[in-house]
Amino acid sequence: MSKEQLIIFDTTLRDGEQSPGASMTRDEKVRIARALERMRVDVIEAGFPIASPGDFEAVKAVAETVTESTVCGLARAIDGDIDRAVEALKPARRARIHTFIATSPIHMRNKLKMEPDEVVEQAVRAVKRARNHTDDVEFSPEDAGRSEPDFLCRVLEAVIDAGATTLNIPDTVGYSLPNLFGELIRGLIERIPNSDKAIFSVHCHNDLGLAVANSLMAVLGGARQVECTINGLGERAGNAALEEVVMAVRTRQDVFPCDTRIDTTQILDTSRLVSNITGFRVQPNKAVVGANAFAHESGIHQDGVLKQRETYEIMRPEDVGWHANRMVLGKHSGRNAFRARLEELGFGIESEEELNELFMRFKELADKKHEIYDEDIQALVTSADQAAINERVRLVALKVCSETGETPRARVTLLMDGEERTAEAEGSGAVDASFRAIEEIVHSGTELLLYSVNNITSGTDAQGEVTVRLDKAGRIVNGKGADTDIVIASALAYVNALNKVLDTDPRHHPQVEEHL
User: Are 199 and 7 in contact (CB under 8 A)?
Assistant: First the structure.
């Protein structure tokens, strides 16, 4: 007897982007969407089209690119939102409109300032309007975890009658507990007379560290769609991690009456891609995709694994993409081998000019380190994309002097708005001096919130990848840089962040007023 399908709805491009500083460009969204499609994600929520022209164009670009997965656009239960989503999704082979309105007493009273009857009326009107354009309509009662069950039943029954085909129950503030959330889903399915006409979904936040647990209990309670993100990315403490949900269901088929169609061997590469693009690193002890996920330090564990892998490993590393055979490139690798590896990693090269630029960067890197791994190539392409973002400032030259007993000093030359400018500064270290010298030229008025360094691969010749997070008047941006010289990588990251700060037409936060 074949099992039911558990639909995987990925919202990395929408909810994941709401992490402070995680905004993605259109091309970056398309690249992640391609990776999600290779992984056989069922539904890709590409963004919130009404939020900004940039978000609209990104959703449209994903809709034009993706052919196998359903492309979804988010819209409040407002006519203008829905119409904008319809327009952005026109190119999609399979399109879904996801509309929502808050249903908890605290949200209705304090935010919407609407009576329950008005909320039901607006929800129904929105679903009907969306249904005029597509047969695939999803409805979410925002803050369902704190909504009154009787009112939830009333709203959901009404929107099913109006044409909603998926009902998503969000734990918007991460307040629920696994047993209670599972009972909520089971109770809704049992109590709503027409519940058999829609698929029940869940969207759990991780404020109490329970997003995955709540999602899995909801699946046992009857939900057949889980909304999640790569690496658990998302605002505040994030969302349910796709890789954890998928592997929990796949590993415990003795418990779950359903399974996903996800190609799990694509999980690790997709995780690294999202991490590279957003600048949000994966902690080593992260389940499934963390560097230590399949490492065994204890002698007892090592002995057991060597004798019989299943003694301490409940999943095979290769099933999620670890230790797969990878082509290692070097300084003697040619353009064709480089192009082929780019394509295998999902990087679509649109022109010979773009390929030539990337190949030149590849050769420069190959002169610095002997072996080039997939992670190096991903960082290289991401770095090239980042450098092209509204490049008002470019690093031309950097010289630092740092020795024992002397105050570190840096001399920086930048190309700013077409004019070369040079400045020197002292600092507590080489990186601090470099940042101070850059500020002597730019005068950005920003506050440094985060400085993070990670090695991309192992070895003393590995590239260092630096993430810098800046805040200017409440606007938070991430900058990234990679180089085998960590001071240069740091300067590149800082300049990259400054270019985003200096952008005169910044993309708005994807969801200013509402949160799922």
Answer: yes
